[in-house]
Design goal:
With 311 residues, the protein is α/β, with parallel strands linked by helices. It has 12 helices and 9 strands. It has a 6-stranded parallel sheet, sandwiched between helices. A 3-stranded mixed sheet has the order 7-8-9, with helices on one face. Strand 5, helix 5 and strand 6 form a beta-alpha-beta unit. The chain is elongated and about 65 Å long. Bound molecules: NADP nicotinamide-adenine-dinucleotide phosphate. The site of NADP nicotinamide-adenine-dinucleotide phosphate has 27 residues, from helix 1 and strand 7.
Length: 311
């Protein structure tokens, strides 16, 4: 029995997420043919060399011609220009989706360029690594991770369900959410934590009283995970903060208040406050493990110090 969900899929942008989608679609036989396009010749050549996509095209319009599903896999700030270019080449009845980490902005930027008769179903897989580019992807990236579908007003139910089938076929659990709520949830769970990690690594770099070699040598205790997050793609994260401004600023405002309260507890020797706070946060960590979204193995399941895993 065939598992094919779309006869033709076009991936625009061939980085970590697009390449993982390609390998995940291949693993389960979810697409008849997958075409791909990346803006640089270098990425297109790499894709051809490693067999990423059944056909790598030299233009985005060529890649989307005849496609039943087109997925925008470029940084959030680049989506509008890409959509403007491919809009006129889309097949009537096709679905356009994306994998951007911010949703309200993408809907506002991309929506106006969706032609009559083409469906628009934004999406966001909550899975990634700090690696980017066409060689970073792997078929298991979405396994047991959430992928959020963010249908827009008037999204066709059948088009939404078909895309749900694709994400489930790629191993993901699927939920639907509205765009503003998505952006607030992601500000808490991903965007603000990334900014905090970037800041912490910047502070360590700035603090000359702790030498660079000490930071590297003794980084097992917490700091190493900050450095992993802070190694994430600069373009992607610049765009996330520029386009999810309000929700991120709201969460950072609350973060600052909590930080001040903890700072005060330390200064005044309020051990009870600190203990209660840490007991509460420990329960949240247990909840994440129980929900199957992380491992309880010591050191995040890494075998040896100094070796990082893929997620
Ligand atoms: P990536 O590995 O850095 O790949 C980005 C791709 O977009 C590359 O093919 C790049 O082309 C292309 N691109 C970059 N700037 C462009 C521009 N101005 N115009 C046209 N194409 C451009 O990125 P990724 O991690 O796959 O992320 C892609 C999308 O997924 C982003 O919207 C991101 O927010 C979202 N996302 C990322 C993660 C994650 O953890 N990484 C998780 C979930 C969702 P060249 O190679 O030719 O430069």
């Amino acid at each position: 029995m065939s598992n094919v969900i779309y006869n033709r899929v076009a991936l625009i942008g061939l980085g970590l997420i697009a390449s993982s989608m390609f390998w995940a679609m291949k693993r389960a036989g979810l697409a008849g043919e997958v075409t791909g396009y990346a803006r640089s010749n270098e990425t297109r050549e790499t894709a051809r060399r490693i067999g990423l996509c059944d056909r790598v095209c030299d233009t985005a319009t060529e890649a989307v011609e005849g496609a039943d599903l087109v997925v925008l896999c470029v940084p959030v700030g680049a989506m509008e220009a890409v959509m403007r270019e491919i809009g006129p080449a889309l097949k009537p009845g096709a679905t356009v989706s994306d994998v951007g980490s911010v949703k309200a902005h993408v809907i506002e930027a991309v929506g106006p360029y969706i032609p009559e008769g083409v469906h628009f179903v934004p999406a966001h897989p909550l899975a990634g690594t700090e690696h980017s580019g066409p060689e970073a992807g792997f078929a298991e990236l979405f396994d047991n991770r959430w992928s959020l579908l963010v249908p827009v007003a008037g999204s066709d139910r059948a088009a939404v369900d078909q895309l749900r089938g694709l994400w489930e076929g790629m191993g993901a659990n699927v939920d639907e959410m509205d765009a503003d709520h998505h952006d607030l949830v992601l500000a808490v769970t991903s965007h603000a934590p990334h900014l905090i990690a970037y800041t912490m690594v910047g502070v360590a770099d700035d603090l000359r009283r702790v030498t660079d070699s000490e930071v590297i040598k003794y980084s097992a205790a917490g700091f190493r995970d900050f450095t992993r997050i802070a190694a994430s793609d600069p373009t992607m994260w610049r765009d996330v903060f520029l386009t999810n401004k309000e929700a991120t600023l709201e969460i950072l405002g609350r973060f600052t208040e909590e930080l001040f309260a903890l700072q005060r507890a330390i200064r005044t020797g309020d051990g009870e406050h600190l203990h209660d706070y840490f007991t509460h946060t420990r329960a949240i960590r247990r909840g994440i493990i129980e929900a199957g979204q992380d491992t309880s193995a010591p050191n995040f399941g890494r075998g040896e110090l100094g070796r990082s895993d893929k997620s």
